[in-house]
Amino acid sequence: MELENSTTTVKNFFFVGFTESAMLQYVLFATFLIIYTMTWLGNVTIITTVIIDQELHKPMYFFLGNLAFIDLSESSVTLPKMLWDFLSEYKSISFGGCIAQIFFFHFTGGAVVFLLTVMTLDRFVAVHKPLQYLNIMNHNVCLGLVTGAWIGGFVHSIVQVALIIQLPFCGPNLLDNFYCDFPQVIKLACTDIYAVELLMVSNSGLLMILIFIVLIVSHVVILVKIRAHITEGKHKAFSTCGAQVAVVSIHFVPCIFIYAWPFKKFVVEKAMSSLYTIITPMLNPIIYTLRNTEMKNAIKKFLNNIFFRMRNSQLSFLS
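RESULT FIELD:
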């Protein structure tokens, strides 16, 4: 399918970005480069630890490793281009590149939403069916659930792209953002977008609200169950659920703010966008590491092994 139809004459979009101040752009470049580096270090550490440590070959950590991979993918859709734009005089992207960025952004973003739902289901089964947990959440089921999360993200993204490519773009090409996203791009279309914005709310905003409510209620039920019936490992279970509630909240609240309010533009939109596109992928591994003692100990052991091998290599080289 051609990305540009006969009524689309726009070849490139230009980003407004965060600021026009050259000095502030250099400051933001350094800040976001540090954040992107920390995102890679944190998530790669979790992925590697989950793969190497046999004690973490459990459903919960399998899902956590997949969440870390999706976080890396999601941040890499927007951050490298944004860092490049901070050092560029003209912050532009081709029409096709913009559509591709929207596709991959919603692909990974949708996968995160469905995977967080899967992780909540995993905790629900672990608390309510502890004796049958490993039989219910076996390897094939876990693999199927993760695959389903990716398929769900793909379907969601295809719907977004399908809504955009049938719109005509024939004049305005200045995006008041630092990356291509559905709400800002459709506002530049040379047609009435009322129906498209309603579809955006139903496909993204309303779905986000419903899933968020279901996840929060589910975690409340899980926490009540832990408090009332579980004695052994209660602190660990509370910590795990607390970490998931934190991750769900910092991901869903900004998304709901952006996608559930059509027809209006808010001053804090860019701040909200940066929260779930840039900050959240960095915070997820930190939250899970701080709140999960087993994960924290496994990472310490993994890092100690690396330092031990590096030290032995140095001593061997010097001798």
